[in-house]
Amino acid sequence: MVVKNVKIYVLGEDYAGYNSPFLSQHGLSFLIKIEDESEKIKNILFDVGTYAKPILFNMKLLHLDPQEIDAIILSHSHVDHTGGVVEMVKAIQKNPIPIFAHPHIFKTSFALDPEFSLANSLTESIKKDVERSGGRWILSSDPIRLIEGVSTLGEIKKEEQLEFEKTPTIKLYYIEDGRLVEDRVEDEIGLYIETRKGLIIVSGCSHPGIVSMIKKAIHLSGVNKVYAVIGGFHLIDANEDRINKTIAHLKKLGVERIYTGHCTGFKAEYRLSEEFGERFERLHAGKVIEI
Ligand SMILES: [Fe+2]
Ligand SMILES: [Fe+2]
Fold first, then answer.
1. How many other CB atoms are there within 10 angstroms of residue 210's CB atom?
2. Under CATH, which architecture does the 5-290 domain have?
3. At what angle do helices 240-252 and 210-221 cross, to 10 degrees?
4. Which of 20, 88, 132, 281 has the highest local Cβ count within 10 Å?
5. Which ligand has an atom closest to residue 48 CA?
6. If you measure from the C-alpha of residue 38 to the centroid of ligand 1, how many angstroms do you get, rounded to a whole number?
7. Rounded to a whole number, what is the distance in angstroms from the first to the last CA of the chain?
């Protein structure tokens, strides 16, 4: 079953757009407005940026009411996708407001290079703060269907990752049983939406690899046609070979439209814009994508 209309509002992005009244920040946040065949509307907040304030400011400019949000999805643990969660839950003023995420979203992940720095912000005390404000955590590594034609991707398992995407896009670690373990950001989940034009795949940073995430969406939905891919691709530190392979796969999969920015990086964006022409669009705060 496909949904009737989808409108995606970019509420948080690293770029504000040219000559724009919107506020940027390091991080991502989308409001996804989905209308089904019976004209019922669901508003899903996908990620909450590092800070809630610019998101709420941008919502006001777009005439969007936080109290109309029905659910939150946190794509992964990193602070630029989760930092605004307490303030956003407070602004939504609903009890309960479901928050979908991976069970490992509270792990303490960090970088060692160039110096020790924490990558995620969520702690047990934030978890409780969110609950006190009405948030209800739904932590699952399996896909969760939100409405007909709309589902999270769940964890992209190692065996579901394409060989060239198995190398983590970011060098992070966490401690397990007192030992230093490499973090493959297995906590990243994405979202797919089935529309009349084909699948829409929404991702945060695509740490497990954007192609592996698209393939999982195709597998879960049984729909082969991919209309749009929206989100950060984290190719900012990727070498030429990985960028080339990603583009080759996106073309082979017949992806119609690419909307990216955030952690995709200038080199990959430039290449995507060359290869996809008008079908590539740079994300920015305040952008509205209608499908
Ligand atoms: Fe990010
Ligand atoms: Fe990330």
1. 28
2. 4-Layer Sandwich (3.60)
3. 20
4. 88
5. 1
6. 35
7. 16
